[in-house]
Amino acid sequence: MNYVKVLEGEIDLEYKWNPGSTIGKFLTNLRDKKEITAVRCDVTSRVYLPPQGWSPYGNKKMDKFSTVSSNPKFFTGTIVYKAPWNKPDGIEVPYMLAALKFLGADTELLHIVVASEEKLKSLKAGDELKPVWKEDRIGTIRDIQYFEPV
Question: I need a labelling partner for 16 at 20 to 30 A (CA). Which of 44, 55, 121, 137 fits?
């Protein structure tokens, strides 16, 4: 006869994750310089944000980094009314999970947009947004706390 023992409690594990050189540079630039960095494929000239190490269409490693200096434009999004388990600290519902388009980038960056519900509902493709940076940055995508309408 098999018996199953169930132990209740918590496990707290510290771990380190190596994001690799491409995402590592992106996250380091967020932390140290408050810069958003993209990468360009030499074969296709497509610009990826967030950057990735390998070009899916050019079939080669990408290492041509550039800083995205303009504020993004709203592309599309959905308003979040029920907070998920991983809701960022200090962000209250409703907020928007949105795809943001940066000038010169061929892909969109997904991030949070914070504003009044009325303002979120009125956002249209092409509306300008600006980043709100955390004061204490640690090298994660959440170093940009959120974006807000200009």
Answer: 55
pTM of the model: 0.85
Please, how many CA atoms are within 13 Å of residue 134, restricted to the half-sphere of its CB? 17
Position 8 in a domain: no
Domain that holds residue 121: 20-149
C-alpha closest to that of 72 among 132, 144, 130, 142? 130
- Number of domains, the chain: 1
Q: Evaluate whether residue 10 is within a structural domain.
A: no
Separation CA 75–CA 40 (nearest Å): 21
Q: What is the pLDDT of residues 27-60, one digit of tens each?
A: 999 999 999 999 999 999 999 999 999 999 989 9
Q: Are 36 and 67 in contact (CB under 8 A)?
A: yes
Average pLDDT for residues 18-35, to the nearest whole number? 92
Residue tagged 């950057």 (tokens): 51
Q: H/E element holding 33?
A: helix 20-33
